[in-house]
Amino acid sequence: MTSIWTGSKVRLRGIEPEDWPAFQRFDDHTADMRTVDRVYPPRSAAGYRQWAAEEATRAPDGDEFRLAVESLSERVVVGALSTTGADRRAGRFGHGIGIGREHQRRGYATDAVVVLLTSMFGELRYHRCEVSALAFNEASIAPHRKIGFRVEGRLRDHEYCAGRHHDVVLLGITADEFAERHPYAPL
């Protein structure tokens, strides 16, 4: 093994100042922005440069951090992944992932989430990961189910976008469930 942050298709790494054009391109697609978070107002190239420079020097907030997802084959930024709601006492955390439109449907998101869970469960002793996705976002729900996440609930009319309210699907996986499907590498 080279690095716990490297999977079969992607490497998770810190965001670098020169990554700003990739993130600007990702934000050009309104439908993608909706599925990741929400639609933000346009930002200037200078704004993206400033954001990337700040991200490059930002220290992790405990176990909450944002990383670039880089493809191993092309060595380009294909998306970003972040942890959220990390609670060491309860042993749970969440995550969010977004893959740029031109890089979708190549297995990058699945590989990136497996890399993240391997670290959070296998190194930091977290017990559970919880995620949510808009119900119409099958592109997010399907890979999570493939990894081993289970649908645990649905929040009706929970989020508003594109002129109406949408359901949110709640998914979760425990460290034991993950390890059954994705055994940790031997020492």
Task: Describe this entry's structure for a reader.
The protein has helices at 20-26, 30-36, 45-57, 108-122, 138-147, 175-181; strands at 10-13, 66-71, 77-87, 92-99, 128-134, 150-161, 164-174. With 187 residues, it is an alpha+beta fold. It has one domain: Gcn5-related N-acetyltransferase (GNAT) (Aminopeptidase, 3-Layer(aba) Sandwich). It has a seven-stranded mixed sheet with strand order 1-2-3-4-5-7-6, with helices on both faces. The chain starts with 9 loop residues before the first strand and ends in a 6-residue tail after the last helix. The mean pLDDT is 94.
Strand % is 25-35%
Radius of gyration: 16 Å
Shape, please? globular
**CATH structural architecture:** 3-Layer(aba) Sandwich
Give the N-to-C terminal Cα separation: 9 Å
Main sheet attributes: strand count, strand direction, barrel closure: 7 strands, mixed
Order of helices and strands: EHHHEEEHEHEEH
InterPro entries: Acyl_CoA_acyltransferase, GNAT_dom, Ribosomal_N-acetyltransferase
Protein name: Protein N-acetyltransferase, RimJ/RimL family
Domain N-acetyltransferase: 10-176
